[in-house]
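PROTEIN DATA CARD
Card holder: DNA-binding transcriptional regulator, GntR family
Chain length: 238
Origin: Aureimonas jatrophae
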Amino acid sequence: MSRSASRSDDDAAPAAPIVLRRVTSATQIFDALRNEIVALKLPPGTALADRSLVERFGVSRTPVREALIRLAEIGLVDVRPQSGTFVSRVPVNAIPEAVLVRKALEGVTVEKAAERGAPARMSRIDAAIARQKAAAAAGDNDGFHEADEGFHAAIADLSGHPGIWVLLAQTKVQIDRARRLTLPVLGRMDHVISEHEVIRARIAQGDGPGARAAMMHHLDAVIPDVDELKGRFPQYFC
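Structure generated from the sequence above:
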């Protein structure tokens, strides 16, 4: 046997190092505050003082300021010189454009998903609907919203274009804030689940046009009446 053939595993070339994504303190703070702002746990107008955030997260001021800058860039906080940093109001004029983007892109993903949606590939969609039903039964608004996000993300993944949902998650952030005001409405969760089940059925049937039509109907119903909400919650909108 040749020397090369008899080399032990120890002589083999070293494996490539595993590269792990490093999550910075600024990113963790950004994610936490973003989620709380979208969920209205930090409602519009709430002051975000550096000192309080430093104490809360146990970090220096640098990552806190980095996180606040990123939140300002996506329109979730206002930095007012000499006054401080505050959770922004929901800009009414930003919602119609976000609606158009969402409907255009989700029309594509749901139709593509129907082209690939064999029953055996529906597990993530079914799991998301099951989580929504459990959250609705428990009156868990946060859990319901998370499961709703999972439903639409699963469709994008099945379509073969998961990056579309990543883009939409950034685009629709103001819509999400307004929608949180509609979830407590009696029966709203049940309507959303029913609409999701229709979309799921059209995908499983391979009915692309039907899936798109069901998604458009769903988004027309899900996107809130901003004028009505602004009348009820004038302090939240600008």
